[in-house]
Amino acid sequence: WYNKIILKREVLIMPRKPTSLTLNEGDYEYLRSLIKQRTIQAQVVIRAHILLDRCKGTPIRTIAKIYDISPSTVQLCIKKYMDGGTKSALFDAQRQGRPVEITDDAVAWIIDIACQRPADLGYAQELWTLKNLHQHIQTHAVEAGYPRLETITKPMVQKILKNSDIK
C-alpha cells in the first residue's frame, strides 16, 4: 500500500492515493441487474462485481483475492470505467483481427463458377462435385485475377458455398 520514493539514498515511504470510484444510480442499477443474469459471460459478471465492490470502498488487493485475479486486472477495469464508462469497463472492444485474405470479389467469382454448369465450361459432368469445383477454381484462379485462390482448400470452398446458401 505504499510507494517508495528514493531521494539521495534515503527511502521515503508515502501512502498511496486511493482510487475512489463513485457510480451514478443508473450505472449502479445496471451493474446489479447484470450480476443477476444467468446468460451473461462470467468475465462480464466479475467486472461488474469489481466495479460494485470498489464503489463500496473495498481495497483493490482484496477484490483481486476474492475473484482470484491480479490487482492490475482490477485496476484496468476501474481505469476503463473512468475513461469510457460502464460499457467500456464491462465489454471488450472489437479487435481488428486477421486481415481478410480472400476478397469479396474472389468469393463472388467462386459463387459465379459454382452456379454455372460444368458442361458449359467444357467438363463432361452436369453437376459440380466439391473436388471438381475445387480443382477448377485452383486451375483458373490466376487467369481470373485471383492468385490467392490458387492455394484455396476444399473446406474453404465448402465454407464459402455454405455461407452463400449454394447447394
Automatic annotation (TrEMBL):
Domain of life: Bacteria
A Pfam family the protein falls into: HTH_32
InterPro entries per the UniProt record, alphabetical: Homeodomain-like_sf (IPR009057)
Name of this chain's protein: Transposase
